[in-house]
Amino acid sequence: MSKKDITRRQFLNYTLTGVGGFMASAISLPMLRFAVDPVLQTKEDSDYVVTDKKIADITNEPVRVDFAFEQKDGWYKSNVTNTAWVFKDENGKIVALSPVCTHLGCMVDWNTNKKHPEQFYCPCHDGLYKKDGTNVEGTPPTRPLDVYPYKEVDGYLALGKAKPRGEA
Ligand code: FES
């Protein structure tokens, strides 16, 4: 047998190593992509959702604005409906508040509690917020309602992701 000849055992070793490596990469590369791809995705400017509320129609009285959008979580897409309480403050600036109570996450309502008119009321544990969204001392919530950043798109109100006051 010459030096260039390979034995049957060597041939099997090379072949199995090659096939094994191919199968390992075929399995691990999609998993690697699954783990890394969401991180590499660029953030689109689609973080704002255009509502059906005309900017010109917003007054000093808080109104409920519902808006729906498609949410992507990795590769999972779902349709989500959100709500904002929208009004203009005394300076004419638009305020869009999250309805989610900062105590334990129930939904607040505007001006529904007769004992506390002109306030946001949370029925779960009698939480109260002033019109600007700040929590009323002595009630369960310990911080203000979150605030939606907003912009105007063709005369309509577009809302971003609600954030704690000061971050919006
Ligand atoms: S969840 Fe709103 S007061 Fe408790």
Features of this protein?
single chain; 168 residues; Rieske Iron-sulfur Protein; 2 domains; three-stranded antiparallel beta sheet
Descriptive overview:
By secondary structure, the protein is α+β, with helices and mostly antiparallel strands. The chain has 2 domains: 1-41; 49-159, Rieske Iron-sulfur Protein, CATH 2.102.10.10. It is built from 1 helix and 9 strands, in the order H-E-E-E-E-E-E-E-E-E. It has one helix at residues 8-40, and strands at residues 49-54, 63-73, 76-88, 94-97, 109-110, 120-122, 127-129, 150-153, 156-159. Strands 1-9-8 form a 3-stranded antiparallel β-sheet, with no helix packed on it. The chain has a 3-stranded antiparallel β-sheet with strand order 2-3-4, with no helix packed on it. A 3-stranded antiparallel β-sheet has the order 5-6-7, with no helix packed on it. The longest helix is centred in the first third of the chain and has 33 residues, at 8-40. The protein is elongated and about 95 Å long. The N and C termini lie far apart (79 Å). FE2/S2 (inorganic) cluster binds next to loops.
